[in-house]
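During the second half of the funding period, the structural biology subgroup turned its attention to how the target accommodates small molecules. The most pressing case was magnesium ion, which had performed well in the primary screen but for which no bound structure existed. We therefore specified the complex as follows and requested a full 3D prediction, including the ligand pose.
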Amino acid sequence: MNFLRLLLRNALRGRLRTFLTVCGSAFLMFVLVFMLTALSEMDAWQGTAATHLRIAVQHGTGLANSLPITLEPFLRGETIAPHGYCICKLNWFGGIYLDPHNFFARFATDHLAWRELFDEFAISQAHYDAWCAQKDSCVVGAALAAKYHWSIGQRVTVLGDIYPIDVTTEIVGIFNGPTPRDEEVLYFRWDYFDELLGGRKLVGTYWLKARTPEDIPKLKELIDAHTRNSPDPTETMTENEFGQQFMEMMGNVKGLVMNLGGVLLVIMVLMTANTVAMSARERVVEVAVLRTLGFRRIHVLGLFLGEAVLVSLAGAVLSLGISYVLFNVLRLSPAPEYFPYFLVERSTMVLALAASVGCGLASAAIPALRSARRPIVDGLRQII
Amino acid sequence: MSELAVRVSQVAKTYYRDQTPVPVLEHIDLTVPTGEFLALMGPSGSGKSTLLNLIAGIDRPTAGTIEVAGQSLAGLSERALAAFRSRHIGFIFQLYNLIPVLSASENVELPLLLTHLSRAERAQHVRAALDIVGLADRSDHLPRQLSGGQEQRVAIARAIVTDPTLLLADEPTGDLDKKNEEEVLVLLQRLNREFKKTIVMVTHDPKAAACAGRTVQLEKGALAVAPVAAG
Ligand SMILES: Nc1ncnc2c1ncn2[C@@H]1O[C@H](COP(=O)(O)OP(=O)(O)OP(=O)(O)O)[C@@H](O)[C@H]1O
Ligand SMILES: [Mg+2]
């Protein structure tokens, strides 16, 4: 026997009640972990784009409009050259591969500039050469290839939805990225894309690299000034800013999720508080007896707080275990089209555990204090 | 050790019920020599439990002083008072008050959790205490698996396991049938004679009081002259 054993015995005293409380807080905690993971996944996509000097040029009215190919000579010209290089077209193709749920990024791009622009990718010379040699070929990330059991030489067809064309390309190369998330991409050649479109020369975005960080504001100014009074004004931004426009759409979502998380915690506290209050009420005499035996107020406080923390931690561990198996082991995703990965991060787990400890303490604080402060003789007479 | 286990001097206790003072004890003087078995009798509401609680240090007097084993309780903080109870007092309740989720031996072990004894030492003490009350074979039983008499004997084991200076019992046989009452009284007598325990027992029952060495009578908050000691 020791204090922990006493805690456990007390916690298991109302088995059904404790079970229901654990399940309740496990459920709420699961929802919380789910939301936190959704947030961390959103951040993860943004995070992968953080450190480069890459610059994106998009249509001033948004991504829905294409840029004119006539912009390209300017970008390659002597105005830009001192500040930027590695001009590369990049079109988000979208589309459907076999099933709408099979979500991964597909881009049409300038294969010649691609390797230097995305220098975080590692691809063998042979694979890269093969891509350059064959117009209707593509390269895919290693994680993606593994996911769909693709191998070199296989032909992959993506049905267009944004563009009225279906693209069939042969996989000739596989590249590795810094993280599996970066490998969730298929790149095919822009010249082939344009050929299928009948030479309409639709450019989704232009990308280039700034020579130094100081060149970034210059490039923004130069490019946007050049197009300001044209029918197709541009908006030039860093890769981070480019990513953020997607995140801004989710910015509200993020705030909402945070508020919801707060609401969940409050519900969790109230639920556990109810359980603790009930059991504290039942144990009025017992507490008085313990104190008669020489237990101090701090012991009583510890017994109730400890029990509440134990119960809510049990709920948290249960929900984390289930989430870990579902998302990290079985690799299930609640929405594969948005979250090809839905990995519960360690920080999320730590946060969830800390939140459950906090909930336990908060929910037991009042009943525990009341129990500890009740005069012994009142307790023995059950004057509540 | 002091010759006197308990010295109660000019103790008064007044409860307040909605601002109105309810005097329960007035001018109580009582001494209990070490090794005595004292019975405290009196009609219901005369303040027997109140006095016992004051001696146990679970309540504080309104006036007067109480010394147990030569130590005055008046100046003790809550914390020191708890330590005092742990060291000097073994309390036996009318309704046993065992913790229902703990086995007999775990119940007996409870007070030892506050000591520095090792697990093995605690187990040894628990076995000895259960042996004395004759329930060594029931150590794994939960309270609800025991009869009332057995429960009270476990409670007595819990009270003696720390080898306290003073055993205080508030109507320990009040809820028991004749046979169990007999057993508990014999046990208390044995603790007094064989193990030299000082015992103060509150009781309504003259037969129980007869087991004690001396009887004092509480009458409307004051101690009356004790009738001739029996036993
Ligand atoms: N916490 C309290 N608040 C108010 N009054 C109290 C309190 N505790 C005891 N009393 C009153 O003090 C008086 C004495 O109570 P006590 O329990 O000491 O009597 P008793 O002699 O033990 O009676 P019984 O034989 O019924 O157990 C009673 O009138 C009781 O109502
Ligand atoms: Mg009483």
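Two results from this model are relevant to the next phase. The interface with chain A takes residues 53, 56, 58-59, 78-79, 82-83, 85-87, 89, 91, 93, 97, 99-102, 106, 109-111, 113-114, 122, 158 of chain B (CB under 8 Å). Chain B is about 30% helix and 30% strand.
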